[in-house]
Design brief:
Chain lengths: 462, 205
């Protein structure tokens, strides 16, 4: 579970639970697959509400915003009164349930927000150094580093910050340096870089773009151009401003930030989410968006660091850029749904064991745990081909045993077979039970299912 | 195991800029062979599978040794743009396995062969129906026979198979050879030793 609503939380469902655990504590819980694009669209009104009070906010992810509040605190007469004002505005558009943390740096502020509760939604950090020192090293979000620190007896960020920086860098390299900086509250700082006069990239469109598919294509192309230009400078952005001009002349902008420097894929993804949020809001007339389509898109980098993507020894930058360019052009021909990648997930059938996602997008978390045992799953070898929908197969049976299979216009003899393995099916979705067989003929082997008196081919061992 | 693998790579390997043709009906293990050949290039960067029917089952690719993050599956069933898509892929990825739709023209395939040569990208062509134009493939592999072990009248399950292919073309120095491979679902196809031989009809001719 990456997010739960108030009703689910009241029933005992908690973030971090597995789906099965959540269903155990609350059988009526409805689980949805995470869709960051849709979440950004839903989150956009919240971002806009905060931006009305605090300018130059930075979106880290849907649901997580950093706001530089120094000026606003002075204007509203204090941190608590500012927080109350933000709470009132956000509650008006999104209802209760949000949490706020106020600290000198973003890392501490995020940890403070995580410690806030629905009863005390604002966690105000009075002493940043003391607050950070009390945090466990696991809060750095690096399991590998944290386990080594724990093994060495360093359990809190305070203990880590007391170590000499040179010793930490010598032992743990750049990751250790980043951790040490974070422990000392220096996570905001990036290596100062001289930013060339104008590295922003821009594209104009006539006629205006109205579909998210077109916008996604443009987003990737612009991200590619920007990062290529920055790579020549040996720099990478931690923060970008995405500005879009609508056909009616209105310009909307939003700043996104990332703890690690953006790469092409993550930057294109953020731009696409943001454009989707604006286009959706205009289309649904639910608030200010890009009305009449997009006529200009501009991405401006900020907070450059010299932590550009370090390629592995066997990789070379030119090959990676060529691959990206070729796949972007392929997407332009077949659409973004035609260029795919697959990740393993749990399941019993070949099709169930695959989680597809579009190339260039972040792989979603698997819906079913691939490391779980999945009794009834057929071991390897797996069928190399699996039709998207089962194909009807004519099989002759004799005394419950398959004897002949029709392949095209000819009947071929069944040489051997294995099964049946009973599959109960998702009865709650109206799916009946089925018997699975592996049928071997002189023309190859097939994975089949028999249900409701018919046989269906679900895989070919090609 | 390593010796057998080296021997297989000596006989059937993707060569930069060369076309490999896989010819035969589904069920004889040609997709598995193609994926194993593709896996040998996946250590260098992304490899692409141009899927005309939308039937590729990625677990078989993973079992063949292609890491999930290195496999790009492109679905395109339109013969009009298929050639353009295949050409795009040849421009960027480390190897391309392309199913060839029924409507693809011989000159289109020859152009792809030329592009593969100029880009030094290995190209595997697998016609969904019929054969490839003669002389196009540097290595032509035709399915001959497959025999499964493990399943028997309702007992057991499929465990391993022996696949017999006929390899021909310039890569075989003009002679056709029968090659028998064993596949047990792991990432290594083992060459069955001593069975690579010229088919009788060729020897007689």
């Amino acid at each position: 579970m990456v997010a739960v609503d108030n009703l689910a939380a009241a029933a005992g469902v908690r973030i971090g639970m597995r789906r099965r655990e959540a269903e155990a504590v609350c059988p009526a819980v409805m689980t949805l697959v995470s869709d960051p694009g849709a979440e950004t669209a839903r989150f956009e009104p919240v971002a806009q509400a905060i931006e009305e009070i605090v300018p130059r906010i930075e979106v880290m992810a849907p649901g997580l915003v950093f706001a530089p509040v120094t000026g606003a605190v002075r204007y509203y007469g204090g941190e608590r009164s500012l927080a109350e004002r933000v709470a009132k505005e956000v509650e008006a558009v999104a209802g209760p349930g949000f949490l706020m943390g106020l600290a000198a740096g973003p890392f501490a502020a995020q940890r403070a927000a995580e410690q806030a509760t629905s009863e005390a939604p604002l966690h105000l950090v009075e002493d940043d150094a003391a607050f950070l020192a009390s945090l466990d090293v696991a809060t750095l979000g690096r399991e590998d580093l944290a386990s080594v620190f724990h093994w060495l007896g360093i359990t809190t960020l305070g203990e880590l910050s007391e170590l000499p920086r040179a010793a930490v860098v010598s032992r743990f390299g750049p990751d250790g340096l980043a951790a040490h900086r974070t422990a000392l509250g220096e996570d905001r700082a990036t290596s100062a870089r001289v930013i060339p006069a104008d590295l922003a990239v821009e594209e104009r469109f006539s006629p205006p773009l109205e579909s998210i598919e077109q916008a996604a294509f443009v987003a990737r192309a612009l991200a590619h151009r920007l990062l290529e230009a920055l790579a020549d400078e040996g720099a990478a952005p931690h923060r970008v401003e995405v500005a879009a001009e609508a056909a009616d002349g209105e310009v909307r902008s939003r700043t996104w930030r990332s703890a690690d420097p953006f790469d092409e894929s993550s930057l294109a993804e953020r731009v696409r989410w943001q454009l989707r949020a604006w286009l959706d809001r205009a289309r649904l007339r639910s608030g200010p968006g890009i009305r009449g389509g997009l006529v200009r898109l501009r991405i401006t980098p900020a907070d450059l660091s010299d932590e550009g993507r370090q390629l592995a020894l066997h990789e070379d930058a030119r090959s990676a850029a060529e691959a990206d360019r070729a796949l972007v052009q392929t997407q332009a021909i077949v659409g973004s749904d035609g260029v795919l990648q697959a990740q393993p997930q749990g399941g019993r059938d070949p099709a169930e064991r695959v989680a597809w996602h579009r190339w260039g997008e972040e792989a979603p978390a698997p819906v079913r745990d691939p490391r779980a045992p999945w009794p009834g799953r057929l071991p390897s070898p797996s069928p190399a081909l699996a039709p998207p929908d089962p194909v009807r197969l004519e099989v002759e049976w004799d005394g419950g045993m398959p004897t002949r299979v029709r392949l095209g216009s000819r009947w071929v003899e069944v040489l051997s077979w294995a099964g049946p393995w009973r599959k109960v099916g998702r009865w709650w979705e109206g799916e009946g039970p089925a018997d699975r067989y592996q049928i071997v003929t002189s023309a190859g082997a097939f994975l089949c299912e028999e249900r409701e008196g018919a046989t269906w081919m679900t895989g070919v061992y090609d | 195991m390593a010796v057998a693998k080296t021997a297989l790579e000596d006989l059937l390997a993707l060569e930069p800029g060369r076309v490999t043709g896989l010819v035969g009906h589904p069920g004889f293990g040609l997709t598995r062979l193609g994926l194993t050949l593709l896996a040998s290039r996946a250590s260098l960067g992304p490899v692409a599978y141009l899927d005309v029917r939308g039937w590729l089952s990625p677990p078989a690719a993973w079992e063949s040794g292609i890491p999930p993050e290195r496999l790009i599956v492109v679905r395109c069933d339109d013969p009009v743009v298929w050639g353009q898509v295949a050409a795009n892929l040849l421009e960027g990825v480390k190897a391309v396995y392309a199913e060839v739709p029924g409507g693809a023209k011989p000159e289109q395939l020859r152009r792809l062969g030329a592009l593969a040569r100029s880009r030094q990208t290995p190209l595997v062509l697998r016609p969904v129906k019929g054969d490839l134009p003669s002389g196009l493939a540097h290595l032509r592999v035709e399915a001959r026979r497959v025999e499964w072990e493990g399943a028997d009248a309702g007992h057991g399950r499929l465990r391993r198979r022996r696949m017999v292919f006929e390899a021909s073309g310039k890569a075989m120095r003009g002679a056709a050879r029968l090659i028998e491979l064993e596949d047990d679902g792991t990432d290594t196809l083992r060459l069955v030793p001593g069975l690579a031989a010229a088919p009788a009809r060729r020897a007689a001719g």
